[in-house]
Amino acid sequence: MLKAANPGYRTAHYGKWDHRSGVFPEQLGYDESDGNTGNKHGVVSSDKDSKWTEHYLNNDPKRIETLTARAINFVQRNRAAGSPFYLQLSHYATHVDMQAKEETYAKYVAKPKGRVHAHPAWAAMMEDLDTGIGRLLDEVDRLGLADNTYIIPMADNGAAEFIPPVKNKLAHPSEYPVPPRNTPLRGGKWDALRGRDPRALHRARSGYQAGFAMPCAGCGLGPATDPGGPRRLPQAAPGRSRRREFPRVAHAG
Length: 253
Description:
The protein is α/β, with parallel strands linked by helices. It is built from five helices and nine strands.
């Protein structure tokens, strides 16, 4: 879509691809990528039991530092070349196994545990991810690109109801001894209830009032941000769903 409107667009996908089809990012129009990656490329341990109970401390948790550096380098190169660009940065965080920086983990270990959220390793991983995304946004601002760039943070599904998961995932929240992590929404990653559906933030700085934000679904972003102008989304074929998107940054040049 972008290159059809402007062949000068440069595109990149870094991080988790997880297409599970043998299709690489370059086959779908990306100029650069990390290849046909999946969750395993961001983990220390993939053991089905310990990944929910153990945590790992390191200086590049879930490859957040590596992915952030690659993303910033891509933005800098295209800013210097004067090229419009599209970047999809699909972080391995937050996902089990749990990884965090030592100092971030120590911060949350020292905090009193909450009734709903009481897992310091998960909280630390969230903060490390937030810090990495913040570095990228700061660089967009520093390079003077913010007024002509779409920044769209998204997630592919909601969180697991409990860490570790429970077997009775569809039980009413009142049946659990403590509130599920997605409270007040019911359900989570594995079902079609509200807890599975993350609220997306569509932050557009080009052609909209500064600071404009709205909740939206991933399938509506393509038509809304088409360089050729807004268009209607074709109806999905019966029995098919539209794949959700991951965080991306699009600069219009």
